[in-house]
Each structure stands twice: as structure tokens, then as C-alpha cells.
Design goal:
The complex is a heterodimer of chains A (305) and B (72).
Chain A lengths: L1 H7 L2 H7 L3 E6 L4 H6 L19 E5 L5 E5 L11 H15 L12 H10 L5 E9 L15 H4 L3 E7 L1 H7 L9 E3 L2 H11 L16 E14 L2 E14 L2 E14 L2 E14 L20 E9 L4
Antiparallel strand pairs in A: 2-3, 4-5, 4-11, 6-7, 7-8, 8-9, 9-10, 10-11
Helix pairs in contact in A: 2-4
Chain B lengths: L2 H8 L9 H8 L20 H8 L3 E6 L8
The chains are: A alpha+beta (305), B alpha+beta (72).
Chain lengths: 305, 72
């Protein structure tokens, strides 16, 4: 996520972007858009020779005419560099020939729109972030971990829970001091969905058969004026041959009346292995970072309005 | 305690009730790391051209393999 935040969090880029209809989408799901950019050069995989299918930034008129672009091979600029992004946006606006009124920027508005579209039917949505934990490297060694941008990187995804799942995670009819086990099926789904290594890119993608240990239990530690405070604890072990993640889980939850108003799950453990496009190497001129190495995951309830 | 978690405990990186808040705050994104989400990204290409025509605005399109706002 670090390269995304660097480009799109820049105040000048944000001010420029507000003058457009800003769209973010998965290039693999929009063939009609891909046709519009099919003639542009894209990155070619040096190993397989496969040509990337269009990751990048593009500026278009409503009719689909291109006003500017930055493709996956760097044609037009680096779309992770705010200076390049700003140049492309400003140049495209000049070609457009008009000065559109900027849309008001509201904290979290992009996420709100994404969740409204993707998780419309979910009772709860967790924002799931992953991050490498601090570690020591041999003095003088040059590894991925000695690169500051690698150390600061983090991953993001989301998990939606149905009303039934939310009630399994935090049962409504329990009293202070009560203990409960979260049903195994839900724990397995949470582990597969949330507790994965996407810190720098593609995760190994665990399935149910890869979950070798999964436990999550809770207890009500306080209750006052209709507000229950809960603690959760458990562990996980995913093992997919060369890939895996083994961790302890702790969590917090608050139930206010019939609503879950706060929810957190945090894991700290050891991950191992790295798939292609994981961002952990071995390509790119630095040694691969397949671990074992410490990694954490934090799942936090997103407040939706 | 299994072996992997024992190694973390010995390295001072175990997750306990005492260390919980520290690790949560370390792993979860900081407010400045979420600033890029304040751009009002429309989450789908479909419909963008219609909205752009209605508002007489150009389209800024950001694409990735997987959705740029979270699934890749």
C-alpha cells in the first residue's frame, strides 16, 4: 500500500484528482475498458514474456478518448510517483480545455464508496491490515528488510460478516463472566479471509484444507448499562507446503444493546514462503524474503454511515 | 506454546494482554496511511462514463490486477 499512499495522498495530486471523476477498478474485470487502452505499451514479464494487461493510470473523456496515461511499463511516467501523476493530470486537464469544479474531499470517502458497493449486504466489515514486524538483520547485510520502503510497507483487504456470523463472533445472549467458543466454521473462514501475507503483494491464498489449527474463544469481562466488553483469544496455523502462517490471536469487542459497536482481532506470529508477485522476491536485485519471519495482522471494525 | 510462537516470545514479540495495544497500533494503518482513501474513488468503471458526461468532467482511471482499493 505504501506506493499507493505516496502517490494519492499527496495534497496537490488530491486537489487535481478532485476535478475528475476518479475511478479505481480491477483491470481483469473490465474488458470494455481494456479495449480503450489496448494499443498502449505495457510491462513484459522477463521470465515468461507475458505482457501485463494494463495496470496503470489513465485519463479519458466521457467518450473514452485518452487524454493521458501511465502504463505498467512506465510509459507516460511512474504512477506511484506523485510528481508524475500530477503532471499527467494537469496536462490532461489542459487538453480537456475546461476547468471542472473540484469535488469536496472527505476523509475515508473512497473507502466508504468501495465498501458500500462491495459489502452492501454485510452486517460488519473489518478493515484487515498486515505488516512485517521488526527484526534484526546481520550487520552490513543487504536484504529486503534493510530497505526502508520495504520495512514501511503494509497490506490491506476487507472482510464482510453476515448478521448471523456477527452473532456467532459475539453472541448476543451471554452474561458477564460467560465464556464461549466461536464456531469452527467461522474461525476457519476468518483465518482464510483475513490472516494472510499480503504485506507487499499477492498472498499464498490459503484454503480451508490448509488450516491446520484454528481456535477462537471469548468471554464477557464487563457489563454496564447495556454495554458489554468482551475479550477474544485463540490461535491459527495455516500450512500450504512451502507457505504458512502460525500465530496467536487476541481481540476486543463491544456490544451495545443489540449492536456490535467495536471489534478488533490482532495476530502476531511467523510467516514463511512467498509466491510470485508477493513482493518478497526473489526478483528485483535483492535477496528473497521468504522467511520464516514475524508478521502481524490487525482486523478492525469499519464504521459505516 | 508451539515452537513458532515460543521463538517470538523469546524475541520479545509475543502477543499478550500486556502487549496487545502496542501490536495493534503497530500493525493497523495510521491516519496518514489512509489519506489516499479520501479521494472519492468510484469503485467501478461501469457507470463512470455516464457520470462524467452528466457532470462534464474527464475520468481519472486507476487500474490494477485486483481491486486497487483493497483486494490486491
Amino acid at each position: 500500500m505504501k506506493n499507493r499512499q505516496e502517490a494519492w495522498a499527496d495534497p496537490k495530486v488530491q486537489a487535481a484528482a478532485a476535478r475528475f471523476i476518479p475511478v479505481a477498478d480491477d483491470i481483469d474485470t473490465i474488458p470494455d475498458f481494456r479495449q480503450l487502452i489496448a494499443h498502449l505499451p505495457q510491462w513484459k514479464d522477463p521470465g515468461s514474456g507475458a505482457v501485463a494487461n494494463g495496470q496503470g493510470v489513465y485519463v479519458l473523456t466521457p467518450k473514452g478518448e485518452l487524454l493521458g496515461w501511465m502504463t505498467s511499463n512506465g510509459d507516460g511516467g511512474n504512477h506511484h510517483d506523485p510528481k508524475d501523476v500530477l503532471r499527467v493530470l494537469e496536462t490532461a486537464l489542459k487538453k480537456w480545455g475546461k476547468e471542472p469544479a473540484p469535488e469536496t474531499l472527505t476523509p475515508g470517502e473512497g473507502e466508504r464508496r468501495f465498501l458500500a458497493e462491495r459489502y452492501a449486504s454485510a452486517a460488519l466489515v473489518l478493515r484487515v491490515s498486515s505488516r512485517d514486524l521488526p527484526r534484526k538483520e546481520a550487520r552490513g547485510a543487504k536484504t529486503k528488510w534493510t530497505d526502508a520502503s520495504y520495512r514501511d510497507d503494509w497490506g490491506l483487504t476487507y472482510a464482510g460478516l453476515s448478521a448471523d456470523e456477527a452473532n456467532q463472533l459475539v453472541p448476543p445472549a451471554i452474561k458477564k463472566g460467560s465464556r464461549f467458543d466461536v464456531p469452527a466454521g467461522l474461525v476457519q473462514r476468518l483465518i482464510v479471509t483475513c490472516f494472510k501475507d499480503n504485506v507487499h503483494g499477492t498472498s499464498p491464498g490459503f484454503g480451508g484444507a490448509d488450516v491446520k489449527a484454528a481456535r477462537l474463544a471469548g468471554r464477557v469481562v464487563a457489563e454496564k448499562d447495556g454495554v458489554q466488553t468482551l475479550r477474544l483469544e485463540g490461535e491459527l496455523n495455516t500450512d500450504k507446503g512451502a507457505f504458512g502462517y502460525e500465530a496467536r490471536i487476541l481481540g476486543r469487542a463491544t456490544r451495545t444493546g443489540d449492536r456490535i459497536t467495536a471489534m478488533e482481532l490482532v495476530s502476531v506470529g511467523t510467516r514463511r514462503g512467498a509466491v510470485y508477485h508477493s513482493g518478497r522476491g526473489p526478483w528485483g536485485g535483492t535477496p528473497e524474503d521468504a522467511g520464516p519471519a514475524p508478521m502481524g495482522v490487525a482486523c478492525v471494525l469499519v464504521e459505516r454511515k | 506454546m508451539n515452537a513458532a510462537i515460543l521463538v517470538l516470545a523469546l524475541a520479545g514479540q509475543d502477543l499478550t494482554e500486556e502487549t496487545y495495544a502496542r501490536w495493534r497500533d503497530y500493525v493497523a494503518p495510521k491516519p496518514q496511511e489512509l489519506l489516499w482513501l479520501q479521494i472519492p474513488w468510484r469503485p467501478r468503471w461501469h457507470g463512470a462514463r455516464t457520470e462524467a458526461a452528466e457532470k462534464d468532467k474527464p475520468i481519472l482511471m486507476w487500474t490494477m490486477n485486483g481491486h486497487p482499493l483493497g483486494d490486491c
